[in-house]
Specification:
Elements lengths: L1 H44 L12 H12 L1 H10 L5 E8 L2 E10 L2 E12 L2 E13 L21 H10 L4 H13 L4 H8 L13 E8 L2 E8 L14 H6 L1 H5 L11 H12 L10
Antiparallel strand pairs: 1-2, 2-3, 3-4, 5-6
Length: 284
């Protein structure tokens, strides 16, 4: 009887030991997957696209080529990543794994799923998907943050030009907008001097138009102000603050070549990463 009891006990202990060994291995794999994602996320936020390649599968790396060729797309993608994302789960199944995350972004709740694949003993990101729910309408005038920084003020000379941009005379407003743009060549200086104006919700009477011209094999895209009433023409700049945004396209060098995204798409990422309002006034 004792032999039977000890035999059963030995089998039980052997099974328990096997389970604990398996569980320990799984915990190590979960830790490896988590660390791989955190390295990927840190590289993404560092602003250096090429540092991401060793952390991606070949398939993901090929998809990433488009982003590398258009730096503004990488800036957009980096700006849209929720800064407060927290890991809510990690699942490992053989040579594939997934990491789920939750946070806030673009005015709503963000949920992310990152799929990873084990390649030659290393976990690499194979696919990334983010979904945002909540009030995300860019056409309702919602924007964040709701107020400029406390230290953001317009110098008298700049304020005088901004006041002219709000003129009911479309010709005067257009001239003032172009005068403001002609004063700056550096985007950082432009932002320091004009940040407070990005929350100016006074109406503008002139349209901002996107134009292009060819030079050899290159096409240059840029924005200019029209001197006729807005009517149905122009890009959606219904306020002074919205009009000020368009100078940054040129100042950031985005006019120097063909663009595969709209200004509004680019602005969403840029504004999110610079603490500027990203909504657009209703009806435009």
């Amino acid at each position: 009887m004792k032999k039977i009891i000890f035999g059963v006990l030995g089998l039980t202990l052997l099974a328990a030991g096997g389970w604990y060994a398996w569980h320990a291995r799984e915990e190590l794999r979960v830790g490896d997957v988590t660390a791989a994602y955190l390295r990927y996320d840190a590289a993404f936020r560092s602003g250096t696209p090429e540092s991401l390649r060793p952390l991606m599968t070949d398939t993901k790396s090929k998809e990433f080529d488009e982003v590398v060729q258009h730096p503004e797309l990488f800036q957009l993608a980096a700006g849209l990543r929720p800064a407060d994302a927290k890991i809510t789960g990690v699942r490992v199944e053989g040579s594939t794994a997934s990491v789920t995350l939750a946070g806030t972004g673009m005015g709503g709740r963000a949920a992310g799923t990152i799929r990873l694949q084990e390649v030659a003993g290393a976990w690499k990101v194979d696919h990334e998907d983010w979904q945002v729910t909540g009030d995300l309408s860019l056409g309702t005038g919602s924007s964040a943050p709701i107020a400029p920084p406390p230290d953001a003020i317009l110098r008298p000379a700049i304020k005088a030009i901004v006041d002219r941009i709000a003129s009911a005379d479309p010709g005067e407003g257009a001239r003032a907008w172009m005068d403001l743009g002609a004063r700056f060549q550096d985007p950082g200086l432009y932002l320091r001097e004009t940040t407070a104006g990005f929350w100016d919700d006074r109406a503008v009477a002139f349209p901002i138009l996107q134009e292009s011209f060819g030079s050899g094999a290159k096409t240059f895209q840029y924005f200019t102000a029209g001197a006729t009433p807005i009517g149905a023409a122009g890009t959606p700049a219904a306020t002074v603050g919205e009009a000020l945004r368009f100078h940054l396209w040129q100042l950031e060098g985005l006019s120097l070549g063909p663009q595969s995204q709209t200004f509004q798409d680019w602005w969403l990422g840029y504004a999110s990463s610079h603490g500027l309002p990203f909504g657009w006034k209703a009806g435009r």
